[in-house]
Design a protein that fits this description.
Length: about 80
């Protein structure tokens, strides 16, 4: 299973979480070639920076954007 496939599975679990939304971090901290997103979790630098102070609703919104990015990559499980 690829890191992106694991991230997609975690996104589904995060969507079901009522509170304490889990972090998307998979400890693969490297920016993609464009410098826009982390290659491990597909978050932008702002999303990473704001994660610890975000509400559960804001964290779920980040997970939704991650799912959209995964879909654009064409690697949904």
């Amino acid at each position: 299973m690829t890191a992106i496939e694991m991230l997609a599975e975690r996104a589904a679990l995060a969507r079901a979480s009522a509170e304490n939304v889990p972090s998307p971090c998979v400890s693969v901290c490297s920016l993609d070639g464009s410098g826009a997103y982390c290659e491990g979790c597909l978050r932008s630098l702002d999303e990473i920076r704001l994660w610890s102070t975000s509400t559960d609703a804001e964290k779920k919104a980040v997970w939704e954007r991650i799912e959209q990015r995964i879909a654009r990559l064409g690697t949904t499980p």
